[in-house]
Known about the structure:
507 residues, alpha/beta, fumarase, four-stranded mixed β-sheet, 19 strands, 33% helix
Amino acid sequence: xxxxxxxxxxDSVADALQFISYYHPADFIQALSxxxxxxxxxxxxxxxxxxxxxxxxxxxxxxxxxxxxxIVVAFVKxxxxxxxxxxxxxxxxxxxxxxxxYLNPDNVLRASIVxxxxxxRKNTRxxxxxxxxVELVQGDKVEVRIAAKGGGSENKAVMKMLNPGDDIVExxxxxxxxxxxxxxxxxxxxxxxxxxxxxxxxxxxxxLMQTMDMTxxxxxxxxxxxxxxxxxxxxxxxALGIGAQGLxxxxxVLDVKILDYPTxxxxxxxxxxxxxxATRHIHFELDGAGPAEFTPPKLEDYPDVHxxxxxxxxxxNLDTVTREQISQWQPGDTVLLSGKLLxxxxxxxxxxxxxxxxGEKLPEGVDFNGRFIYYVGPVDPVQGEAVGPAGPTxxxxxxxxxEVMLAQTGLMGMVGKAERGKIAIEAIKKHAAVSLIAVGxxxxxxxxxxxxxxxxxxxxxxxxxxYEFEVEDMPVTVAVDTQGRSIHDIGxxxxxxxxxxxxxxxx
Length: 507
């Protein structure tokens, strides 16, 4: 009988979460490298170059790939011949591992979990609790598959009870188009088919723990219906032309994974969960011999990609930029921002709008007139950093606040990731403002442009507080111009047409 020590389990979970915070899975890097080499869209290729460069930087510096260090999801299979030397249960041990990983002073990870989700939404400050699925199986070992799932991609999960005769491919394609770019493509789609509603969703999540192997699958050919479905969906999704960060291009997905389960004759449950460009998961097994060990990848195995800003990028001083100047910007333009940049996410926007509705003044130092706001919740700094990894959060979530912010604060521009919705674009056009995007999945690279950072309001909100950043040559792209034209409409539409004339390229 195998005896698993409590400390070995906790240490393994903590080490695993630190490991995946700064090391991408090797299969993801290989798949993204192939996509980068094949990409013909300059904007998408630039975005992928930033992601690949960021990945190498994080591996070398042991800092998070993304500022959103995720909600922890663990699938734990416990052999029925295992004996525990523990005073905590499995869920408590996982949470203790999470706590130690996220509070590690050498590489602090962002605490994103809030309790009372329908009410106060108070940050738990240590990223617990995790979501844990425990299964008793035959054997004398403990197998753990653990991931840190970003909120932007998780928010794009969809599930539907299809009729038995409905076309799965048709529904998936419609769903992917509806997801937009908030899930930070290119990445992987996990699909669950069958069972019941909750089983389909669980299958989709579990499928994301698998290794990317689309190149190998296409080379050898499908051997069953699910493999045929994977290839068909891979080709047709990429033909949508959404591309990296939704900018338009050849690579929207790097792989499509599917797990299925028998279902009721009257049902066809299907769920989709995307994994973003900050794909983070790892598997380990405990056999009683001590904690798990993780072998770092070699930096020389990373692709020889070192992003640099385009020579024709427009350099902008945020402290002096005018509305006349931003009116000349076009969707897709590359811009390098320097100067003072305020930040604010969901909780800060909600509080600001409520204060304005009550006729209250904003906190001292919070003046948006003629300024730009960055939708970000950064990681805490370590070792002399001005700020930790500080990539963008999904701009779409701020759409409902955009009219008030532009009309009542004098805000001139916004920086986030993904597309803006109809109400936000109407407000942007009405007030002759602009919306910019930074690359999701390049958080450490972006943070290198931040020279100083200080909290100026709402410190109680933790990572959602309002900061003032001093930035130098922070890379962004014009997403929506003052006329309301969006690169997330223009780019994919162009590449959807172009892909029809481009021979199929294996990535």
